[in-house]
């Protein structure tokens, strides 16, 4: 594939072709490898992340999900392979070019990761204050717009500790979206939440995708949530992709590790039957 970006450390921005932007696949991961010393964690991963869809990545502990997430947001570089984001090889970018491309990605952390010493408004404004030259008025308008769309504008002057788990998650999503990210990565978004709050977070992921048109990547062990809202599921096992496809396609797979993982998850048969019917 032709290189579409400047060299290391250059301030030029990668060029995304119209063809890449129109592709239903926003991120193509091709033969991705990552090792720490002699321990190989990612062993040639290849799969696609669909644009504007809810893409779940599942697998047992130690399967490589967290390491993959670190490659996706470029906290680390892979040893080899490609991460093509809108046609640009994300795995090879450096310096200012990498910083500019990072704006595409927003993170929603497992426990929301809000600053207790700041108000809701200040938490959401933080990325704009730190990383842009926007005026105070521009920041206020952007922050209140995101809070309003996500239904938490009334909490702007409250501290995160005053909010429910579901409301905190909405604030975390607002912060991830405030720089107009195109891809949101959710790290175990329902861990430790009660069933009603879990359902609220599931609905929030769907609502955010529909309202903002973002691509959602959800790292999760919560199989009930996975089969409730996923458009695509990729199952990792010992650093390899064992299966990838729609929920219905995964349920029809004959791959034994995938079937065993789904069966052991305890997800209700009603949910599985519903996704099998609906695709």
What's the short version?
The protein is α/β, with parallel strands linked by helices and 279 residues long. The chain contains eleven helices and ten strands. Helix 4 packs across helix 5 (136-149), helix 4 (120-131) runs parallel beside helix 6 and helix 6 (165-177) runs parallel beside helix 7.
The spatial strand order of the largest sheet comes to: 6-7-8-3-9-10
Which geometry do the CA atoms define?
A: globular
Strand-residue proportion: 15-25%
Share in helix = 25-40%
**Low-confidence spans:** 1-12
Count of separate DSSP helical elements: 11
Succession of helices and strands: HEEEHEEHEHHHEHEHEEHHH
- Mean pLDDT equals 87
Largest sheet descriptor? 6 strands, mixed
3D architecture notes:
The chain is an alpha/beta fold and 279 residues long. Helices cover 39% and strands 23% of the residues. It is built from 11 helices and 10 strands. A hairpin with a 2-residue loop joins strand 9 and strand 10 (240-245).
Which helices and strands appear, and what pairs or packs with what?
Elements: H1 18-22, E1 25-36, E2 39-50, E3 54-58, H2 65-72, E4 80-85, E5 88-89, H3 95-102, E6 105-108, H4 120-131, H5 136-149, H6 165-177, E7 183-187, H7 195-212, E8 215-219, H8 223-229, E9 232-237, E10 240-245, H9 247-252, H10 256-264, H11 269-278
Parallel strand pairs: 3-8, 3-9, 6-7, 7-8
Antiparallel strand pairs: 1-2, 1-4, 4-5, 9-10
Helix pairs in contact: 4-5, 4-6, 6-7
């Amino acid at each position: 594939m032709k290189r579409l970006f400047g060299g290391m450390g250059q301030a030029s921005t990668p060029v995304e072709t119209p063809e890449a932007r129109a592709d239903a696949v926003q991120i193509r991961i091709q033969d991705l490898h990552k090792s720490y010393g002699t321990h190989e964690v990612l062993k040639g991963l290849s799969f696609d992340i669909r644009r504007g869809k809810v893409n779940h990545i599942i697998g047992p502990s130690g399967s490589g999900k967290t390491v993959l997430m670190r490659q996706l947001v470029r906290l680390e570089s892979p040893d080899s392979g490609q991460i093509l984001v809108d046609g640009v090889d994300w795995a090879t970018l450096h310096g200012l070019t990498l910083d500019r491309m990072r704006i595409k990605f927003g993170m929603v952390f497992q426990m929301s990761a809000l600053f207790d010493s700041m108000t809701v408004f200040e938490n959401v404004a933080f990325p704009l204050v730190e990383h842009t030259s926007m005026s105070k008025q521009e920041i206020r308008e952007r922050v209140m717009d995101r809070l309003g769309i996500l239904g938490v504008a009334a909490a702007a002057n409250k501290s995160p500790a005053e909010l429910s788990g579901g409301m905190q998650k909405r604030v975390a999503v607002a912060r991830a979206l405030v720089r107009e990210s195109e891809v949101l990565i959710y790290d175990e978004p329902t861990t430790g939440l009660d069933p009603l709050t879990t359902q609220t977070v599931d609905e929030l992921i769907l609502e955010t995708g529909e309202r903002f048109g973002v691509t959602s990547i959800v790292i999760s062990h919560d199989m009930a949530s996975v089969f409730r809202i996923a458009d695509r599921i990729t199952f990792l096992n010992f650093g390899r992709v064992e299966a990838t496809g729609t929920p219905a396609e995964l349920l029809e797979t004959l791959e034994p590790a995938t079937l065993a993982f789904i069966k052991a998850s305890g997800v209700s048969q009603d949910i599985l039957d519903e996704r099998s019917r609906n695709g």
